[in-house]
Amino acid sequence: MTSISERIVYYEYIKKNILQNFPDWFKACFALSSLSETENCRQCQRSSGHNQKQPLRQSSDYYRCRTFRLEKALDQAEVPYCIYDKTVANPTTTNVYEAIALYKSECCDCIIGFGGGSSIDCAKAVGACIVKPKQPLSKMKGILKVHKKLPLLMAVPTTAGTGSETTLAAVITDAHTRHKYAINDFPLIPRYAVLDPKVTISLPPFITATTGMDALTHAVEAYIGNSTTYGTRKDAILAVKLIFENIYTAYEDGRNVEARRNMLRASFYAGCAFTKSYVGYVHAVAHSLGGEYNVPHGLANAVILPMVLKAYGEVIHPKLARLAVAAGLTDPNTPCDEAAKCFISAIQEMKKRFGIGNHIPEIQETDVPKLAHYADKEANPLYPVPVLMSAAELETFYYMLMPNPENPKKDSDRSDHGE
Known about the structure:
Helix content is 46%, strand content 11%. The chain has 419 residues and is an alpha/beta fold.
């Protein structure tokens, strides 16, 4: 398995040419690339005219226009490929099984996940099903249910948020029940991660904001949990520092390559942190909302994060104080409680500046017990949260997220959705 440091070094080599220094044998592969649905919903294939196998590529919505450089590189390297382009936000089992059918029909033997976390997660799930054809996806949810080595899997993130390019997780939504669940196993970590800031330059400001706050949530939840290591704490602190230093620039000046590069790095380091130290109740609640109502994951995390941090109370204040120092919000001499509150306030101010509200209007009161049950089942006992909460206690968050009857939908204008 490639180490994190090796993947970072690898990025330095390939950032100018997406195929530069790839293993020689890869040039004899047939690639399947997974993309998400475009207006055309078109599929395209390239063939070298030989009986080679190919890779599958996964990408997302308006990202298809960004694949030109990748397709050109594959063509120049004479790597035949086909594209699955129907992945939706919060990828479903239908997406996975459609991509598997294409993978098999085109005799592919490796996968490129190109896009946001939805596309990369879908690519991971495809790989898992390819090596375990007799086991349904629902039987792989949880920890260490895959076991087997996947076909060569590469990830090219086009958003700086999910960190899926370096994590062992794939989050999939059951197309029939709308239950969203995670598959966690080491073979799901992509063999190569390509962090190219140029593919993120045209990302709209709102999606830049929500995916950036997704990365922030990963770093914060990994850091405040009860299962950290020196390495994960270091990665989480670096991610928080990079996000606070660069997210506003990336939001206001999307063509600032340095800010885009640093946000990709932040997302990567946050992913490294939470893939080992896990997340917490922010993610558990967000996943239930994404599955039931298709609320974009980054948006849900951004809305929920400050309220969960407040609910944890003083037990996390020492850790939040250290994050406040890393973010440049306070100095080491600031009293712990004051620094922690400053950090939460900075997140609330970040949301306000980005036009992210405090409510999720899709929530139906009759669904709350079911949603809280899903969140409880996901988080307990898997997530090493700093404060344990029951399903009944988690219901409080859903009621807090519901808009006031006289003010519906005011706080959640989401004409642009993040992944």
